[in-house]
């Protein structure tokens, strides 16, 4: 009986040239939706947290400052770059104070139960926590309902990690 089903599937694939494409698309979408996200976003050419920007500088200098591999530290399975040894030491002493919320993924996206990359220069510090966004347009939407977005993102983040 199983052979008959396989034979039917092969026939469909031969006669309907787009069927393999659609089957692949469906299987890919399913498998991607079941994968958990990494706890820290490491996109960009540096393959470092926050695309190689110094997470401490957001708090001490109020701006996005590029870090260097020279001052790096491993935390939550990712490499974090800093612009100075002093910033590296501050982070090591209290990573939860300086690490961005939601692993450095776009906070707006997490509030919508998904993830997206970020632009390190598009950030907001609210109540002592760092939030990064995909771009300035997304950040405008984030800032309009920031409190509600944070509540949603706080609820969604554990589920995105566990998927």
Would you write up a description of this structure?
It is a single chain. With 163 residues, this protein is an alpha+beta fold. The protein has two domains: 32 residues; 114 residues, no CATH class. Strands 1-2 form a two-stranded antiparallel ribbon. Strands 3-4 form a two-stranded antiparallel sheet. It starts with a helix and ends with a helix.
Give unreliable regions as ranges.
21-34
**Largest sheet, described in full?**
2 strands, antiparallel
Order of helices and strands: HHHEEHHHEEHH
Proportion of residues in β-strands:
5-15%
Q: Percent range for helical residues?
A: 40-55%
Mean of pLDDT: 86
| Strand runs, count | 4
Strand order within the widest sheet? 1-2
Outline type: globular
Number of domains: 2
In whole angstroms, the N-to-C terminal distance is: 35 Å
Radius of gyration: 21 Å
The assigned structural class equals alpha+beta
Question: How many H/I helices?
Answer: 8
SSE inventory with pairings:
Elements lengths: L1 H14 L3 H15 L23 H4 L7 E8 L2 E5 L2 H9 L1 H4 L8 H5 L11 E4 L2 E4 L3 H9 L1 H17 L1
Antiparallel strand pairs: 1-2, 3-4
Summarize, please.
The protein is of the alpha+beta class. Helix content is 47%, strand content 13%.
Q: Keywords for this structure?
A:
2 domains; globular; 163 residues; two-stranded antiparallel ribbon; 4 strands; 47% helix; alpha+beta
């Amino acid at each position: 009986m199983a052979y008959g089903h396989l034979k039917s599937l092969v026939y469909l694939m031969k006669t309907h040239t787009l069927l393999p494409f659609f089957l692949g698309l469906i299987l890919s979408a399913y498998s991607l939706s079941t994968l958990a996200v990494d706890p820290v976003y490491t996109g960009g050419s540096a393959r470092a947290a926050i695309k190689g920007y110094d997470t401490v500088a957001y708090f001490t200098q109020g701006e996005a400052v590029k870090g260097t591999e020279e001052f790096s530290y491993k935390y939550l399975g990712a490499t974090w770059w800093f612009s100075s040894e002093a910033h590296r030491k501050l982070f090591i002493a209290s990573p939860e104070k300086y690490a961005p919320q939601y692993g450095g993924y776009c906070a707006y996206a997490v509030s919508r139960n998904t993830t997206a990359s970020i632009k390190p220069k598009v950030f907001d510090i609210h109540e002592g926590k760092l939030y990064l966004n995909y771009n300035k347009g997304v950040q405008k939407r984030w800032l309009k309902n920031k409190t509600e977005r944070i509540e949603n993102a706080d609820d969604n983040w554990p589920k995105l990690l566990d998927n």
